[in-house]
Amino acid sequence: MVEQLQRYGVISSKKVVEVMETIDRALFVPDGTPAYVDSPMAIGYNATISAPHMHATCLQLLEENLQPGMHALDVGSGTGYLTACFATMVGPQGRAIGVEHIPELVASSIKNIEKSAAASLLKGGSLSVHAGDGREGWPEHAPYDAIHVGAAAPEIPQPLIDQLKPGGRMVIPVGKIFQDLQVVDKNLDGSVSIRSETAVRYVPLTSRDAQLKGY
Ligand code: SAH
Prior knowledge:
seven-stranded mixed β-sheet; 8 helices; binds S-adenosyl-L-homocysteine; transferase; S-adenosyl-L-methionine; Protein-L-isoaspartate O-methyltransferase
C-alpha cells in the first residue's frame, strides 16, 4: 500500500514512508475491515479512519514539525493511527497527544497503540490519548510544533491557534459540505498565514451529542 502511494506520487518523503511502514494500519482498523485499501473506513460512533492517502498527505505537510523532541497534538484522534505516527516521529524526547471526544474510541485507540510499534512510547509517557473536546486543544503540553485536526471544523477554533508555537504548523479541514484542507503556519512574529492545500471530505468536528445523533 505504501509503495503504491509512492508510485502515485502521494508520498515523496522517506520519513513518511518509514513511519507508515512502521505503524501497521491493520492494527488500527476494526476486525474484518480491509486495512490496505485506499479509502476511509467506518470505526463506529459515526466516525471513520481516514484514507491512507490522507494520512500520508497530513504526515507530509507536518513532517518538518514532527522532528525528534517536538510536540504534536492530534485532535479527533479516532483509531490513534496518526497519533502513533506522530509519536514515532517526535520520539521519546518529544510529546504526542491525542484528544478524542468518544471515550470508547479513546479506549480502543489505546489498545491499538499497545499492539503497534509505538507501544513503548505509550508506556514511556511520550504518547498519550485523552478524552475531551478537541476544539479546546490540550493546554497542558502546549505550545505545539504540529497540530493535526482529523475532523472538519466550520471555522478554525481559536484555542488551537493559540496553542500553536511560533514556527508551528496546523493542518485542519475547514468547511461544512465543501471542505478545504487548510495549512495554518504561525510565523515567528506570532502572525498566522493560511493556505488551502486541497478539497477534502471529513466527518464534522462537533459536539459528542451532535455526532451521535441517530447512531
Ligand atoms: N485521524 C483519525 C480520524 C478519525 S475521524 C483516524 O484516522 O483514525 C474524526 C474523529 O474526530 C472521530 O473519531 C470523532 O469522534 C472525533 N471528533 C469529532 N469532533 C470532536 C471534538 N469536538 N473533539 C474531539 N474529537 C472529535
